[in-house]
Design brief:
Blueprint: E1 4-15, E2 26-42, E3 51-55, E4 60-63, H1 72-81, E5 92-98, H2 108-123, H3 130-145, H4 151-158, E6 162-164, E7 171-172, E8 179-185, H5 192-205, H6 207-230, H7 236-249, H8 255-266, E9 271-275, E10 282-287, H9 292-300, E11 305-311
Parallel strand pairs: 3-5
Antiparallel strand pairs: 1-2, 2-5, 2-6, 3-4, 6-7, 8-10, 8-11, 9-10
Length: 318
């Protein structure tokens, strides 16, 4: 029996983080250069229900039935088989690997879930649509994050840029002109829950001030959407800079993120900002092309890693 594999990209928030929690829109894009991969192989000598998970990146080697019922990897398997008993599933080994740093704003958990759901469902002979994969991954995401927006699983399962406002259907963006984004990892894991909770506490103390900031971020996101569709993407740089200043105002940037943002601009990026929850994680920069010089200089400035992703409305990315 052949092995079944699936690979999924990461994702970044281009505009709108935090404000999206308060009813404003956000734009997210896939990152094809950072991927999670799952390979499912049959265990010929194994008994039904003997499913072994190998995840060397987190030093995990375990049978699925030994994992807690709400463990994300077990949950991804369970959501595929539904109410069926694990003992009815053919014996297999599931290898999980990922190039996506956890807790960095790149959608690591969603990418792993999407890959696992795709590969495991194929192993069982089930054909799932992108929408079904996204819905299943969202169930697992709720275990990770409580009440996630659904952006991560949607962008990653469909592998397309997404525009999203809370309460509205996701909208897949058409890209008028391909553009390039440099993704820079600070080396310091972010803390989305702490960042979100902190913003909420400050918003409760100063609702008028924070609502004005969120509205300004929403306006930036809508301007970015129009620019992306029209193709004059060099103009996104100024919007990135403005968005970052507002994220500084709500207290989710750090000295290290600010330093990397400034360094990217000084090296020729058209604009730069933090991406994701903040308090660590990544910054992103709009660059004119595959500029290895900026990447190399960012590493000299203390970045842990850099990668360039090209934003297009075409799929798949991998």
């Amino acid at each position: 029996m052949p092995a079944f594999s699936a690979t999924s990209p990461g994702k970044i928030i281009l505009f709108g983080e935090h404000a999206v929690v308060y009813g404003e829109p956000a734009i997210a894009i896939p990152v094809s250069t950072a991927q999670a991969k799952v390979i499912v192989s049959a265990r010929i000598q194994g008994k039904p229900g003997e499913i072994i998970i190998e995840a060397p990146d987190i030093s995990l080697s375990s049978s699925v039935d030994q994992l807690e019922p709400n463990h994300p990897l077990r949950a991804a398997i369970q959501v595929v088989i539904g109410e069926e008993d694990l003992k009815q599933v053919p014996s297999c080994t599931i290898l999980v690997t990922s190039e996506i740093p956890p807790s960095s704003g790149l959608g690591s958990s969603a990418a792993i879930s999407v890959s696992l759901i795709r590969a495991f469902s194929a192993f069982l002979g089930k054909r799932l649509s992108d929408e079904q994969v996204s819905d299943f991954a969202y169930v697992v995401e709720k275990i990770h994050h409580g009440t996630p927006s659904g952006i991560d699983n949607t962008v990653i399962s469909h592998q397309k840029p997404v525009y999203y406002r809370k309460g509205d259907p996701f909208e897949f963006l058409e890209i008028g002109e391909e553009f390039s984004v440099l993704v820079v990892y600070s080396g310091f894991p972010g803390n989305t829950r702490e960042a979100v909770d902190g913003v909420r506490e400050r918003w409760q103390r100063e609702p008028d001030r924070y609502n004005q900031i969120f509205t300004r971020i929403g306006d930036i996101t809508n301007k970015a959407k129009r620019i992306i569709g029209g193709g004059d993407t060099d103009r996104l740089g100024d919007l990135m800079n403005e968005n970052h200043e507002l994220l500084q105002e709500i207290g989710v940037s750090t000295t290290e993120l600010d330093r990397l943002v400034l360094a990217a601009r000084e090296m020729g990026a058209l604009g730069a900002k933090l991406s994701g929850g903040g308090l660590g994680g990544h910054i992103i920069a709009l660059i004119e092309s595959e500029n290895d010089d900026i990447s190399k200089e960012m590493m000299k400035k203390g970045a842990k890693s850099t990668q360039i992703t090209h934003v297009t409305s075409r799929a798949p990315y991998n």
